[in-house]
Design goal:
Layout lengths: L2 H65 L1 H11 L5 H5 L9 H12 L7 E6 L11 H12 L6 E7 L2 E11 L5 H4 L7 H7 L12 E10 L1 H52 L15 H26 L1
Antiparallel strand pairs: 1-4, 2-3, 3-4
Helix pairs in contact: 1-4, 1-8, 8-9
């Protein structure tokens, strides 16, 4: 095997071992990074849901109440003899002005484009039955109730479609929540008619009544990591091949080429061809020193051959 081929094989073996070690480390790192990225995106979506709730409470609901004011005035006149103005005002209710309903509905539109992300405000005693907890969500809610200082929880769970990654945050009942969720008698009657008197009542202020949960299939961060890993691996292989070609060229012009000329010249001299030209000497590196030594040996051998011929 030629010197250049040996060097290429050695480089390929060493680079391959280094690449395998780097691939192992990079793959694990990319998996962690992809998981963190998905959780970060989930947290942004969770904050977006909170912003939706605040927008509904602070802007949509007052506007709706103002728009419904004429109907409330008519209702007040009609029932003033049988109930108070406060009771009449409680008759005004639309699900669209409920923050939880608004956030969930908006995310249902978002899921049409991003079906992997799922949002839910899971509660043990919800007004809307679609928000009632399932088994694994109840475990999360109980974890928040058992640890009031716990503000964020993430983890993995098994589903029929595989592992799923979730991010959860506790939700507490505020003073404004008590207007609708204390007792059926104090709640808007339209809400009671729509959802019934047994759903979403008996809440206590500052009590953890729900968990805001966003879940994503684990296959999503895994695929993100694998895609990045493949791109990185191809880039490293490309850099390795390019590096090998450049090293082979440099090795050929600085080592293999001169050594080949030495071998050819030595072969010619061994066959008795003493009139061959000397090797060029350029610089002071090891190859140049070897060329100078070879030339001295050539001259000494030529002189010795002449002396032998003269003696004859």
């Amino acid at each position: 095997m030629r010197l250049l081929a040996k060097f290429s094989v050695i480089f390929a073996v060493v680079f391959g071992l280094g690449l395998a070690a780097a691939a192992y480390l990079f793959h694990a790192s990319l998996q962690r990074s992809a998981r963190e990225q998905v959780l970060y995106q989930a947290q942004i979506m969770m904050e977006t849901a909170v912003a939706m709730r605040n927008y509904t409470t602070e802007q949509i609901r007052p506007v709706m109440m103002e728009m419904l004011q004429p109907y409330r005035a008519d209702a007040d006149d009609a029932i003033s003899k049988i109930c108070s103005r406060e009771a009449a005002s409680r008759r005004i209710f639309r699900p669209q002005i409920v923050p939880a309903f608004a956030a969930t509905e908006i995310f249902s539109y978002l899921r049409k484009k991003y079906p992997d992300y799922f949002y839910k405000e899971a509660s043990l005693n919800p007004t809307n039955p679609r928000n009632r907890v399932v088994d694994w969500e109840e475990d999360i809610l109980n974890a928040f109730r058992n640890r009031p200082d716990l503000m964020l929880l993430d983890g993995e769970r098994m589903t029929p479609l595989g592992k799923s990654l979730f991010l959860a945050r506790p939700m507490r009942a505020t003073k404004s929540c008590m207007e609708c969720h204390a007792t059926p008698a104090e709640a808007p009657q339209d809400m009671v008619k729509l959802y019934g008197p047994a759903n979403g009542f008996g809440w206590k202020e500052n009590e953890i009544i729900a968990a805001q949960i966003i879940s994503v299939p684990v296959s999503l961060p895994v695929e993100m990591a694998n895609r990045s890993f493949r791109r990185l691996l191809l880039a490293l292989v490309g850099v390795g091949v390019l590096t090998l070609l450049m090293l082979d060229l440099l090795l050929y012009f600085t080592v293999v080429g001169p050594v080949s000329r030495f071998a050819k010249r030595a072969d010619e001299i061994s066959k008795g061809q003493m009139d061959v030209p000397e090797l060029p000497v350029q610089g002071h590196d090891e190859i140049s020193i070897l060329a100078a030594s070879f030339n001295r040996m050539h001259r000494s051998l030529a002189a010795a051959m002449k002396m032998l011929e003269q003696e004859k």
